[in-house]
Amino acid sequence: MCYTMVVTKEKGNCSVTDKRYNIYKEDIKMAVVKLTTDNFEQEVLQAQQPVLVDFYADWCGPCKMMAPIVEALSEELSDVKVCHINIDENIDIAQKYRVMSIPTFIAFKGGEESGRQIGAIPKTALVDLVK
User: What does the similarity note say (predicted)?
Assistant: First the structure.
């Protein structure tokens, strides 16, 4: 799939340049979306595509081990939205989804939980969780 993006630089109200770039879906790299209580519904429950949510805490050793894997998945799986949420800052969401251990990975499809894995797990297990 190919997208065309027009980039226009403006100085005042005058258009200085107009360049066109072709961007292919496989070249789009997505960053991990930071979730909060304020954006959880919009980013996860209302998402059109599958979503993988990493429930973590800054002090958690296994969470730190999984962070580069989660980041890599966000770049590799263009059809999946990859997110993370700090349970210390968003206790209400962690309680709602009964997160008792971290890291906990929950997959959502159509706004509903479709799978869950707890602990430091291989990258392939995370891919299987969201596919």
Answer: Belongs to the thioredoxin family.
